[in-house]
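tool_call predict_complex ligand=magnesium ion
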Amino acid sequence: MIRYDVLKSIAPVIRGKLIVCNIGSPSQELFDLLDQPSNFYMLGTMGLCSSIGLGLALAQKSQVIAIEGDGSVLTNLATLSTIANNQADNFTLLIIDNGSYGSTGDQPTYAGRKTSLANVARACGCDIVVECSAENTASELEKALSSRRMTVIVSKCESGNVDVPVIDLDPCVIRERFMGEIKRLDETRS
Amino acid sequence: MATESDRRIVDCLVANEIKFATSVPCKQLAGVIDLVDSSPSIMHVPSNKEDEGMGLCAGAYMGGTQSCIIMQNTALGVVVNSLATLIQFYRIPLPMLISYRGEIGEKVACQVEMALHTKAILGQLHIPTYHFQHCDQLEHLDSIIKHAHVCGKPVAVLADAMFWRSAE
Ligand SMILES: [Mg+2]
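tool_result ok
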């Protein structure tokens, strides 16, 4: 399974949920598979997906899933210590680890070699860290969401991208509809 | 350890309903960071690096919480991409309280190197920038924070050594 297959398999789980999605192919593939107002697509800024997700989770009550990549997390590795030390039980960090920089031509990352992002997350103090196969990602994600505990999932999959169009939404439109959805979810809860 | 000016700064953040702050420490900001950390109305999430902080602030803002970043000017060399492609591209208001190291009164020579680029970087990014040289200028802080929200942009307050000395 490649990233696109993982995203396809988790689509029913993340439907209606607040998603912050990593720059490049991950966002484009998610846009292609399941565009929804509760998706925040990153159009730039390598590495900050998990930080945006954590900030959002700390600021409001709805569940937030940050869909990260191994290359992106390696860019901002210290994020794992910030996540560990600022517990947000409405936050799930899903790292789709295909061992490569997918958006730039599948150059290998160190996560595909000797570096274990799951072990880094544990060493940073993240209490619940699950490494799973691509096939088990949807069920692990479901488990994490229903546990209501802050969870880091490292989903090991194969590298490769599918040919999907570039996201043609204006960034302010992405943000506005995302914030509208956050507000709506907040009102639904109360 | 916090001075009257530190208190005025944090009171101003609170009065503007800034409920989320991130920081990377600087000696000159120690008092402000202490007060932010102990403020019951501000959630303080320290960052390891300032670009990470910009991500946290962007997320908090979208979650309906006004946010700000407290950092040193040297880090402007770190955050150019985050400012351009996240904060500005998505039009996120972000007050930045920046200690302006390397100006007159600086004791560490190396700090001068980034001081020379500080206003140029902010200018290149077209970020509204306010240079505080005396604590009397704090009377403008409230309007500057509001300005970030009026224009949906990052705004920078540069507080230099003379400012912090006047604040003692
Ligand atoms: Mg990858």
